[in-house]
Amino acid sequence: MAACKVNQLDSLLLDSFYQDLICQQLLKPFPFDSIKTFFSISLVKTAYLYSGLWHGKDTQGNIIYNTTYKLPSNPWLFIHYFFEIFQILNITFKEHLGRIHTLWNLALFINWVLFLITSKYRNLAERLGKILILSKDPEKRLNIDYMYTQRAVFFAIVSDTIKAIMPYLKINSLLKFLNDESNLISDGSDYCVVCDAEEIVSPMYYNGCSHIACYVCWQGRVGKGCPRCKD
């Protein structure tokens, strides 16, 4: 059973995206000329076909969009590979191909129209090599785990909610309230009267005076009073 046109095209676009991304990373560090660019892209295309189609394995695009290959005999695979490489040549050296470039593009357009009518052969290389794309599981449309999407939607809602209420919050008052209530840090104007530390952790005030100490220091002198006041 032939896969629907949308799944076939999305599968092709995803695989093309992966290949283009790899090519960009390969070409980025070096100022490649047209010849080196052609061979680099051809190498990536060959590796992709070797790891997928030629071994009868589904690509990432196939897996996600519930499609699979119907493999022809080896001679047709060779013809398909030849025209995949020719397509790269057509793009890289289009200024030098003249009428061949024009005729190839016309053939691409005709193939596109035929694909829209028949749902077979997404590109001209697949048509010439008889590479059919079938639906792997007729009961399913896509093979996607939506957990990531659900998490993304949840955090988007939380983010939008926070943005909506932020203008109505008195942040400075809220922070002062939390600081006063939690007593996590001192205001920096004093130091611990026991260990002389300027950064007081969980400051505690002695009864009867305004001197402060770290909680651990204060706890160690419970019942002994303030060491500065001797009280």
UniProtKB/TrEMBL annotation:
Keyword hit for Coiled coil: no
Primary site of residence: membrane
Pathway the protein takes part in: Protein modification; protein ubiquitination
GO CC list: peroxisomal membrane
PROSITE patterns, per the entry: ZF_RING_2
Superkingdom of origin: Eukaryota
Topology class, membrane: Multi-pass membrane protein
Subcellular location: Peroxisome membrane
SUPFAM superfamilies (UniProt xref): RING/U-box
Alphabetized InterPro entries for the sequence: PEX2/10, Znf_RING
Domain RING-type, residue spans: 192-230
Single GO MF annotation: transferase activity
UniProt-listed GO biological process terms: protein import into peroxisome matrix
PANTHER family with a match to the protein in the record: PEROXISOME BIOGENESIS FACTOR 2
Family: Belongs to the pex2/pex10/pex12 family.
Protein name per Swiss-Prot or TrEMBL: RING-type domain-containing protein
Organism: Stentor coeruleus
